[in-house]
Design a protein that fits this description.
Number of domains: 3
CATH topology of the largest domain: Heat Shock Protein 90
Structural class: alpha+beta
Low-confidence stretches: 1-30
Strand content: 15-25%
Distance between the termini: 108 Å
CATH architecture of the largest domain: 2-Layer Sandwich
Number of helices: 12
Mean pLDDT: 89
Strand order of the largest sheet: 1-2-3-4-5-6-7
Shape: globular
């Protein structure tokens, strides 16, 4: 029996040593194995998961509220899906935009960083923000004209100070925060022309958060093709205490062969005096038609029409026509609003540059 017992003890000891040795080998093998490389979708998935990225009552609501969870999931799904069409570096920009958005939304909805549960008003604010975010997420990456466009974002927010709230009659009359919500496009690629395009499209806040003015910038790709890309920007500034926002529009059009902004001579070869007069005439005719329905007594200011119609920053290039933008206050008071005039390329046939980049061509 003693021999048998000694044998069993020796066998158990050997087994223990073997197990320890195998475990050590396993640890060494695990440490030596290369880590899985991050993919575009994994980078965005991590940032779009508020359960891991957001703390406090805000994070608990995003992760646990049955009304908010489906919206959070929708945003995450759409952002992750979009990331599959871009490189990892671009996906990190998407992830950073989402991280900024989560924090800016918390501040804009007046939510603190502690454990105090969200009020109904705060939850309603987050719900509306998530619904809008889901719409934005669908357009984070788009394919158009042979290009992959990615939305780049700047999302910032700063709570309203007590002094500003007091000046407005109390916190109930003041917004929760000053916000900066800016979106602009970049094209996926690294050619010199694309790099210049991306530099021209980049937008930045025009004011600091301390200026107590919220800013909003969004865009739409009006036309994209091998020779030209035209992007329409919508902008708005809202100063704290202002009666209404200050709205504006502009266009950035890039000739892709050079990566340079569209020039007047890229479009027109006729003498400047001639094409400017004709453009103003066509614009005036259409503006009068539009204004007749609004205010038959309004008199169009000819100098302002000419000045606005002939600036390239107001030209939206489309497949079939030149659209001329007349932003608020360009031809009348702010209350008059903004206008746009669509002029078919066929109507400009005699003025166009024969070597203009497509689609700037009159139909045969």
């Amino acid at each position: 029996m003693a021999v048998d017992r000694s044998y069993r003890m020796a066998a158990a000891g050997a087994a223990l040593l073997l197990a320890v040795g195998l475990a050590a080998c396993g640890d060494k093998a695990g440490k030596g194995e290369p880590k899985a490389e991050a993919t575009s979708q994994s980078v965005v998935e991590a940032a779009a998961d508020p359960c891991a990225a957001v703390s406090g009552a805000y994070g608990e609501a995003l992760c646990g509220d049955p009304d908010l969870q489906p919206l959070v999931g929708q945003v995450k799904e759409r952002l992750v899906d979009a990331a599959g069409d871009v490189a990892v570096g671009s996906a990190r920009q998407i992830a950073d935009g989402q991280t900024q958005w989560l924090e800016a939304t918390r501040i804009a909805c007046g939510i603190g960083t502690g454990k105090i549960p969200l009020t109904k008003e705060q939850k309603d604010c987050v719900t509306a923000s998530l619904r809008r975010r889901a719409q934005q997420a669908s357009a984070t990456v788009t394919q158009q004209g042979g290009y992959t466009f990615q939305a780049v974002e700047i999302n910032r927010a700063q709570p309203i100070t007590a002094d500003i709230a007091a000046d407005m009659g109390g916190a109930e009359f003041a917004p929760a925060a000053i916000t900066k919500e800016i979106r602009f496009p970049r094209i996926e690629g690294d050619s010199p022309q694309i790099q210049r395009f991306n530099a021209l499209m980049a937008q930045r806040p025009q004011r600091s958060l301390a200026d107590a003015t919220s800013e909003f910038v969004d865009y739409r790709v009006a036309y994209a093709g091998p020779e030209l890309v035209s992007v329409r920007f919508t902008m708005s500034e809202t100063a704290v205490g202002a009666i209404r926002p200050s709205d504006d529009e502009k266009v950035v059009t890039v000739v892709m062969a050079t990566g340079e902004p569209l020039k007047e001579t890229d479009v027109f070869s006729a003498p400047p005096a001639r094409w400017k007069a004709e453009l103003a005439r066509l614009a005036t005719r259409d503006l009068r038609r539009q204004l007749r329905e609004m205010d038959p007594e309004f008199q169009l200011p000819a100098p302002e029409v000419l000045d606005t119609a002939t600036k390239t920053k107001n030209w939206v290039i489309t497949q079939d026509a030149l659209i001329v933008l007349f932003p608020p206050e360009s031809i009348g008071p702010h209350a008059l609003g903004n206008f746009e005039v669509k002029i078919p390329w066929a109507d400009l046939r005699a003025l166009l540059n024969p070597a203009a980049p497509a689609p700037i061509k009159a139909p045969a």
